[in-house]
# Entry
Amino acid sequence: MSANSKKSKILMVEDNIFLRKLYRDKLTRAGFEFLEATNGVEGINKVLTEKPNLVILDLLLPIKNGFDVLSSIKSNPRTKSIPVIILSNLGQEIDIKEALSLGAQDYLVKTEVRLSEVVNRIKKILV
# Structure
Protein backbone atom coordinates (compact mmCIF):
# COMPACT_ATOMS: atom_id res chain seq x y z
CA MET A 1 0.00 0.00 0.00
CA SER A 2 1.49 3.34 -0.99
CA ALA A 3 1.77 6.12 1.56
CA ASN A 4 -0.89 8.31 -0.04
CA SER A 5 -3.50 5.56 -0.21
CA LYS A 6 -3.35 5.17 3.57
CA LYS A 7 -6.73 5.68 5.22
CA SER A 8 -7.30 9.02 6.89
CA LYS A 9 -7.86 8.71 10.63
CA ILE A 10 -10.91 10.40 12.10
CA LEU A 11 -11.15 10.76 15.88
CA MET A 12 -14.62 11.34 17.30
CA VAL A 13 -14.75 12.71 20.84
CA GLU A 14 -18.36 12.09 21.84
CA ASP A 15 -19.95 10.63 24.98
CA ASN A 16 -23.13 9.40 23.22
CA ILE A 17 -22.57 5.73 22.37
CA PHE A 18 -25.41 5.65 19.82
CA LEU A 19 -24.01 8.62 17.92
CA ARG A 20 -20.51 7.15 17.93
CA LYS A 21 -21.83 3.91 16.46
CA LEU A 22 -23.70 5.78 13.71
CA TYR A 23 -20.59 7.73 12.77
CA ARG A 24 -18.31 4.69 13.07
CA ASP A 25 -20.50 2.77 10.58
CA LYS A 26 -20.82 5.67 8.14
CA LEU A 27 -17.17 6.81 8.21
CA THR A 28 -15.78 3.28 8.04
CA ARG A 29 -17.94 2.64 4.97
CA ALA A 30 -16.70 5.93 3.51
CA GLY A 31 -13.14 4.57 3.75
CA PHE A 32 -11.88 6.26 6.90
CA GLU A 33 -10.20 4.73 9.92
CA PHE A 34 -12.44 5.54 12.90
CA LEU A 35 -11.11 6.24 16.39
CA GLU A 36 -13.22 7.27 19.35
CA ALA A 37 -12.96 8.84 22.78
CA THR A 38 -15.75 9.18 25.32
CA ASN A 39 -14.53 12.17 27.34
CA GLY A 40 -12.32 15.22 26.97
CA VAL A 41 -9.23 13.82 28.69
CA GLU A 42 -9.31 10.63 26.63
CA GLY A 43 -9.82 12.80 23.53
CA ILE A 44 -6.70 14.87 24.18
CA ASN A 45 -4.64 11.73 24.88
CA LYS A 46 -5.81 10.09 21.65
CA VAL A 47 -5.02 13.21 19.61
CA LEU A 48 -1.46 13.08 20.97
CA THR A 49 -0.92 9.33 20.56
CA GLU A 50 -2.87 8.62 17.36
CA LYS A 51 -2.27 11.88 15.42
CA PRO A 52 -5.64 11.74 13.61
CA ASN A 53 -6.11 13.59 10.31
CA LEU A 54 -9.27 15.21 11.67
CA VAL A 55 -11.19 15.44 14.95
CA ILE A 56 -14.98 15.53 15.34
CA LEU A 57 -15.53 17.11 18.74
CA ASP A 58 -18.60 17.44 20.94
CA LEU A 59 -18.60 20.38 23.37
CA LEU A 60 -20.63 18.83 26.19
CA LEU A 61 -18.26 16.14 27.45
CA PRO A 62 -17.52 14.51 30.80
CA ILE A 63 -14.30 15.39 32.72
CA LYS A 64 -13.08 18.10 30.31
CA ASN A 65 -15.41 20.00 27.99
CA GLY A 66 -14.95 20.42 24.27
CA PHE A 67 -13.79 24.03 24.51
CA ASP A 68 -10.91 22.90 26.75
CA VAL A 69 -10.11 19.99 24.42
CA LEU A 70 -10.08 22.34 21.42
CA SER A 71 -7.79 24.79 23.28
CA SER A 72 -5.41 21.95 24.16
CA ILE A 73 -5.26 20.70 20.57
CA LYS A 74 -4.74 24.17 19.08
CA SER A 75 -2.19 25.36 21.67
CA ASN A 76 0.08 22.33 21.19
CA PRO A 77 2.59 22.77 18.32
CA ARG A 78 2.42 19.01 17.62
CA THR A 79 -1.37 18.97 17.12
CA LYS A 80 -2.43 22.52 16.22
CA SER A 81 -2.60 21.81 12.48
CA ILE A 82 -5.16 18.99 12.93
CA PRO A 83 -8.55 20.23 11.69
CA VAL A 84 -11.36 20.08 14.26
CA ILE A 85 -15.07 19.99 13.39
CA ILE A 86 -17.36 20.82 16.29
CA LEU A 87 -20.50 18.67 16.31
CA SER A 88 -22.63 19.81 19.21
CA ASN A 89 -26.15 20.44 20.46
CA LEU A 90 -25.02 23.92 21.48
CA GLY A 91 -26.33 26.08 18.67
CA GLN A 92 -26.08 29.54 20.21
CA GLU A 93 -24.03 32.14 18.42
CA ILE A 94 -21.84 32.75 21.47
CA ASP A 95 -20.77 29.06 21.53
CA ILE A 96 -20.19 28.99 17.78
CA LYS A 97 -18.05 32.18 17.89
CA GLU A 98 -16.08 30.85 20.86
CA ALA A 99 -15.29 27.54 19.12
CA LEU A 100 -14.30 29.21 15.85
CA SER A 101 -12.12 31.73 17.69
CA LEU A 102 -10.36 28.82 19.42
CA GLY A 103 -9.50 27.37 16.02
CA ALA A 104 -12.33 25.02 15.01
CA GLN A 105 -12.48 24.50 11.26
CA ASP A 106 -16.24 24.07 11.17
CA TYR A 107 -19.20 24.11 13.57
CA LEU A 108 -22.20 21.87 13.06
CA VAL A 109 -25.31 21.62 15.23
CA LYS A 110 -26.33 17.97 15.66
CA THR A 111 -30.04 18.57 15.17
CA GLU A 112 -29.50 20.62 12.01
CA VAL A 113 -27.06 18.47 10.06
CA ARG A 114 -27.38 15.10 8.37
CA LEU A 115 -24.75 12.42 8.70
CA SER A 116 -24.02 12.48 4.97
CA GLU A 117 -23.38 16.24 5.16
CA VAL A 118 -20.83 15.72 7.94
CA VAL A 119 -19.05 13.10 5.80
CA ASN A 120 -19.01 15.56 2.85
CA ARG A 121 -17.51 18.28 5.02
CA ILE A 122 -14.83 15.89 6.30
CA LYS A 123 -13.93 14.91 2.72
CA LYS A 124 -13.70 18.59 1.68
CA ILE A 125 -11.35 19.41 4.56
CA LEU A 126 -9.12 16.38 3.96
CA VAL A 127 -8.78 16.79 0.19
Q: What stands out?
A: Residues 50 and 65 are 20 Å apart (CA to CA).
